[in-house]
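Why does residue order matter? Because the sequence determines the fold. Keep that principle in mind as you read this record.
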Amino acid sequence: MSRIMIIGGHGKVALLAAPLLVAAGHDVVSLIRDPAQAPDVAATGATPLVLSVEEADVTDLTRAFAGADAVVWSAGAAGKGGPQRTDAVDRAAAIRSMEAATAAGVRRYVMVSFMSAYGDVAEDHPLRAYAIAKIAADRHLQGTGLDWTILGPGRLTLEEPSGAIAVERVAEGGDNYTSRGNVARVIAAVLAEPASIGRVIPFHDGAVPIAEAVANVPPEYSDLS
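Structure:
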């Protein structure tokens, strides 16, 4: 059994991932910013912990991560508060969580990012501020000593999970729909798959069973330049 910290524990993906991890025998702690979210998290079998990653410093996060074996970042500003808050959450807070994981002795770190987190961001990108923040956080994670995996799902849907994905880079605007349920299953799968360490995994709904797909990710996908 491992102790797994989920940051952004009340998000749609996190609420789907927590029960999968609990069912696999893990002790799951989900960080949330609003105490009113606690019953939803508790219903998944996870333990809710009220701590705003936007406001918490490295010391706060290090204390929260004590005894954990893995951290899963599934938080985000969700476009609320404009570019300044997007940067504060999706880049700055994410980086603090990486520093805290290192300070707390947590080796494993899984980042839920997005499929287009590569290269320069076009001026007309519809999610420019978010993309810039996520790319910066992802690149920072690659430079840490953590055992990281970066997940890059495509356009998220509420479709029922198929348990199968395609791992590939897809051009902006391509057919990249991705069930949130499949993202949750990918989180659980990479935590159980050592071959996913040091890999960036761009994916969408497809035909390859998830466990097989995350064990065979081309290393060249980890080049975020």
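The chain has a mean pLDDT of 93.
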